[in-house]
Amino acid sequence: MDYREKFEMALEKVQKAPRYTGGEMNTTVKAWDETPLHFGFCFPDTYEVGMSHLGLKILYGLINRESWSLCERFFMPWTDMIELMQKEEIPLLSMESRRPLNEFDVIGFTLQYEMSYSNILAMMEMGGVPLEGTERGEKDPIVVAGGPCAFNPEPLAPFIDAFMIGDGEDVMTELNRVILRRKTEGWTREECLRELAKLEGVYVPSLYDVTYEEDGRIRAVTPNCPEAPATVKKRVVVDLNNTYYPEEIPVPYTEVIFDRIMLEIMRGCTRGCRFCQAGMLYRPVRERSLEKLTDLAEKLQEATGYEEISLSSLSSGDYTCLPELIRTLMRNMKEKRVSISLPSLRIDSVLKESLEETQQVRKTSLTFAPEAGTQRMRDVINKGVTEEDLLEKVRDAFSGGWNSVKLYFMDGLPTETEADLDGIADLARKVVGEYFAVPKDQRARGLRVTVSVSIFVPKPFTPFQWAPQDTIETVFAKTEHLKKVLNIKGVTFNWHEPYVSFMEACFARGDRRMGRVLQKAYEKGCILDGWNETFRFDKWMEAFKECGLDPAFYANREREKDEIFPWDHIDSGISKSFLWRENEKALRAETTRDCRKGCNGCGLQKWKGVCGYANAGSV
Amino acid sequence: MLAVFEKGERIRHIGHLDIQRSVQRGLRRSGLPVAYSQGFNPHILITFASALSTGACGKREIMDVTMAGDVEAEEFLEKMNRAMPPEMQLKEARAVDNKHPSLMGMVAAADYDLLIRDEAQGEKLAAALPEMMKKDQIMATRKTKTKLSECDIKPLIYSLYAEKKDGKTHLRAMMTLTERESCKPQMLLEALKAQAGIEAEVRMLVTREGLYGLNETGALAPLENM
Ligand code: SF4
Question: How many CB atoms lie within 10 A of CB A560?
Fold first, then answer.
């Protein structure tokens, strides 16, 4: 029996076979032999998670669009499938032509969250690709990665040949062209990697040496060959209207997490929340035009038959002509019976009218993210939401017939005191009060307020990149306190165990040595760490111990102003001095204005013509 | 509009609900004028003759779509086939009026092809088949959600024979399939295994070749022609 037959046999035994079958509408199976370059797109999590991800759909379309390249998808199998694959010696196969991973010229991982890292190793091993770059030979694929976590690539440096930093649309094709030349011109792997390092936005970790201080901090990161630039600048696509966006996207048979059209209305965010890494990494803000979006919505709907369109961005409420966009979409889509899911923060008076008119809104739960319980704390994190704002929106929602509200908070933020935790409970109580203030016959029955408190993870390229994370013990103590104060009628308190956040913190600001921990933990059986049922904290701690590293060094240590960070040779466009300034302002609870009200000199203004809000001289 | 469609081998593990949703989205992609239900959460008016189990392929599955305007069968077929994935293509379509009786109520039997993956097992099963059919009663276990029960499947079998194609044994069975009772391929296989004295797992590929109804004379006839 060959592996394809064995795979078919395994499908008869696994829990959710549809996640492995492929053949979905709008997927592309190009002729293998006639297409010179074969790209294996790897999403290091399950099919249902991966197929909900917009970036996958963009790059899938983009690579398949070129006549000379093809793209096939790979996902992380669930444990039952992995067991069968190991027993029957079935390699990891692509969704399209069911070819093993190691038959591809390039394999690309998308790095969306740190806890997917062990899956990367698992997928490579199952796909017959040597885990470490140094073990790969001339016949092995080039392994690349991109996505938000690529901004601190160091923990994955041993395993990934080249990282793409920043927006992927342009650099993806450039990178594929270079890798194609490896084939046509017979370049060695090393030659190819050096060529890749010349591309703007591409970081080849093996071309850099890292030295450490006695205490484990980094002394220097230095290029070891002329092709490698001292710092790698992130890529930015300046004009989204002229940047590739798919007009056809795969439609899964089985239900995935986001089973709908995602329309990316803008990229970046001007608000400058200090905890938010995406808000910094995706600067500057760039909008797609109304015309482009209505056109895309039309085409995507026709190509998919989806019943729902959601607007996607970091803060859709800030899109310049949001009310007009929503009205236009609703009008165009009404006959096709397509609903538009709205950014919940904007269920305000501007939209009320068109909502009532169309009745297209399902009264599901509304979510708000005040992030912190007191005004002082919100000023520290520069979250420009006031209590009055929030209560007003909640009031609108309750009188508009909603009965369910979700509130998202963080704990463990810098400078946090018990008063800030109590503030979370105060706010929840006031929200409950707003509900009861609506006359009984005018409100929906059955109030549900959910308070979710997640644990703050300090991230690179944010003003809090110097800050310590709360220790596990502190988090537990705070959670106990929150449980007590949030014991309010009508309020459900969702809390999180600190272990995953702790591991995230280790990786988020980890250096190359974290790669060893990752490999150790993987060898001990850690995979699918993003899932409760498979996450094994004890194994991770063993791995740290065996590598002689202290997790607290990464997670709980406060950094000095001038410490050299593992990611300092990556240039996100945001200057370290701006971030430090923001950090100091945070400690004084001073806010920074929204970039739309004036440039704050984050550093990006030095890249001419990139940020539309950075008018020269205003800094 | 009555249409015959295929559920291909690659997607045989897709369950009935997902198949339904895929057809609905296909209809929405096709741009054909389909009718929607009234109410807050409108859905396309469509019925399927019979849910095909997860794991089985279907050669001639049948659906009935209520159209919101006049559509020629040819146009329906062409537009839908452009809008459906390769594994779910339509084979035939025929305009029927809204008074067409419920498909589900009309189904009487299904024609199955059971490909036995292991040929040694296939030969044993084929050899045991005549013996089994000679018996007055063929006992099999029926599994419902809540219980197991013994029943006689002999009256449920219209015809049953074995044939060899490309060196593999196929069992061909026409068996009762109504809203009230049916004989599932797995039940038949279990009975035949018992007869052949096979205890090991037998892997088979189930293909439902077609659905049948009873015509005026009480004989089986392809449902799509009725
Ligand atoms: S350059 Fe100025 S306006 Fe642009 S993102 Fe940075 S601070 Fe904001």
Answer: 9
CB A565 within 8 A of CB A465: yes
A378: buried, middle or exposed (CB in 10 Å: 19+, 13-18, 0-12)?
A: buried
Ligand 1, atom nearest to A619 Cα: 2
How confident is the model over A9-27, as pLDDT tens digits? 999 999 999 999 999 999 9
Residue of A nearest to B33 (CA): A336
pLDDT higher than threshold 80 for residue A352: no
Q: What is the mean pLDDT of residues B102-129?
A: 94
Give the start-to-end residue ranges of the domains of chain A: 3-166+168-233
Strand partners, B148: B143
Query: How much is the ipTM here?
Result: 0.91
DSSP state of A240: G
Among candidate residues A92, A29, A33, the one with its CA nearest the CA of residue A64: A29
Say yes or no for a CB contact (<8 Å) between A305 and B29: yes
Considering only the beta carbons, identify the residue of A11, A18, A22 that sits closest to B18.
A18
Interface of B with A in 27-56 (CB under 8 A): 27-29, 31, 36, 40, 42, 54-55
Kindly report whether the global pTM for this prediction surpasses the value 0.80: yes
Q: Residue B176 and residue B173: Cα distance in Å, rounded? A: 10
So what's the pLDDT on residue A402?
84
Decide if pLDDT at A617 tops 60: no
- For domain B108-225, the question of CATH label 3.30.70 is answered with yes
All CATH 3.30.70.580 domain ranges in chain B, comma separated: 2-105
Cβ pairs bridging A and B (under 8 Å): 63
pLDDT (tens digit, 9 = 90+) per residue, A465-479?
999 999 999 999 999
pLDDT for the residue B147: 82
Domain boundaries B2-105, corresponding CATH code: 3.30.70.580
**Strand (E) positions, A393-447?**
404-411
Give residue B214's Cα distance to chain centre.
Answer: 16
